[in-house]
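REQUEST FORM: STRUCTURE PREDICTION
Request ID: SP-0412
Submitted by: Lab K.M.
Chain count: 1
Length (residues): 214
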Amino acid sequence: SRVKCLGTQCTNNRKKDGMEAKMEAVLKKVDVEIQRYHGGSLTGKDILKVVANATFIFDSFAEIFVEHKRENCELTDADIRKLCNEHKLVFLLWDGAFSYARTINPDDHDRAMYKRFVEAAVFCHTKIGCSITPKVHLMLKHVLKQMLSIPGGLGDKMEDWVELMHQTGQRLRVRFRSVKCIKKRAESMARTIQMHSHADIDEQIEEVKKNVSR
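STATUS: Completed
RESULT:
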């Protein structure tokens, strides 16, 4: 992408006072952490923080890029700020789209606003070089219909629970990786999930935590 290209045209990328260090410092100010175990990318909860602080983050990034730009950089200062603004806009538009998609009992106005936000989000999404993933396709082609056809709307349509299930599934796969029989492994994982979703057990776990913290 043009952002990666820009990185190769900036000086002192990895030094303590370099571009990369300053970018990470900006993210830390809003409690966003790049997860090395996650391939150096952001997890779902951190993406939400970026969305909530998109203006601060990308405005700060623009100043960092301008400061560390090489003398022979192909981009002008205005180009750099425009590029950062385009990325900021994508986050703001997706935030608006998700906000309307989560509306309880959406009316015609909510659906019309969702349509405006999602179409603009996808347009800007592809403009900065991002691909149309299955999730983007669902947002563009199916969510609006579901806001109309599903009683009460889609409600809390966010990825929080999906990210949680990814983490839960990974922990269980590691825990039961030595079980050779696929059926027994699946049954063991299912029993564990059921046990941790039992109200009485959850209540007892919380009681133990309170007693330990006293």
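NOTES: Residues 1-9 have pLDDT under 50 and may be disordered.
Reviewed by: T.R.
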